[in-house]
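Example record

One chain of 463 residues, shown exactly as stored in the release files.
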Amino acid sequence: MENLINKIENELNSLSNEERNEILNKLRDGIDDIDKQIVKLLVKRTLHSVLIGRVKQSMNLPTYNPKREKEISQRISSLTEEPLSKEALLRIYERILDESRAIQREELDKGKIFKISSKNIKKGFSKLLSKKELFIVILFFIIILGILYSTFFTANYYSAPAPIKVEIKLGETLSELTNDLYSKGIIPSKTNFKIAAFIYGAEKSIKAARYSLPNGLSYLDLLDYFIHGKGDLLKLVTIIPGSTLESVASTLQRDAFIDSTKILSLSQNKTFLDSLGIDSPSMLGYILPKHYYIYERSSAYEALRILYSGIKNFMSDSLRQRAEKIGYSIPQILTIASIVEGETKNKSEMPIIARVYYNRLKQGMKLQADPTIEFAKKGKWGRLNFKDLQIKSPYNTYKHDGLPPGPINNPDKSAILAALYPDKNNFLYFVANGNGSHHFSTNFQDHLKNANIYRKHLDSLKK
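Predicted structure tokens for this chain:
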């Protein structure tokens, strides 16, 4: 069509009559084709008009609706394009609307004289395309489906011994995972894997876990592994302040399916402790209470190394220098912190209690710390009596001078910082006051008075 327009606009006068007749015939053929389309559309529009007339009739509405026809005229006017003027287009549509109203009135007078089915309104697909064109379209889709199937559903094989282990870390991006899979030879194409992930909607559904991938997985099978977590998931494990090794082992078994017996055994293994640089009878005190991410069914060795990383990262050079400045080793600081943790959960009091113990150590007094007796009793918590204070244990600070052999629990950051930065005071004694805090005193006489007040408080609770 563009060539015809150029010839008419620029070459018409130079063309022979034969060439002009050829152009004329082509234009007339074009008009014939357009007329066919117009007639089909007019028939379709008229059929809609007939149906509208029937709906109006059922609602007792008039055939003529000036408001609706005005809306049509305004809409049609907005569609005008050269060389057809708005006025010409409106005249044509005025005639179309006249005929539509006439047909509606005819049906109103004579009843349903037109048989209408969906075939009248909707063209069959076969009429839109020739058999040859239809065959080409079907063949095209078959080829596309074949390519998609061979790309995304066909098994991919890697050359390494099966299965290959893959770890997806928390927050790992699809690109990072794709690079890892490609570098290990698990997928032959980064692009195809990313396309499959897009089709699957997998980018935000992949679960952090440790996977053992068998050989021969397609891209979609592989994504199914990652989305439905067919591996050892990365679990959130929470260690609470003041926890014991037994409670840590129990938490790991409950939340990450790690053998608690192996945890307890390894946490007291001297060779393992030496490998971590822990100068203590066990890992007690060296597991910082916080949240940790650990893969399910990890080895005890791996799990304990992850837990140890908490205290290792927390004890910065400045904190180690602080311990050296006040004349205590890291094991001693953690031991003091664990006793403070055992005495109170009131963080504001922790530095005050830490100073009480430093004051006692400075004066050569026994620590006489109740939490160490409770530890020596191996978890048998309760109100201490005179017999408890006679228990034979290096952790009995009522009988032995100085610090016990090691921490008695896993102290929180607040207790550790209290041990490193104790309050400035002269207190030597303290006793609970019954409301979650303590009374402090500098001499034994005042301490006895405070202890008597607390004893009366406990007796009142029994009544």
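Notes: The chain has four domains: 2-121, 136-230, 243-314, 317-427.
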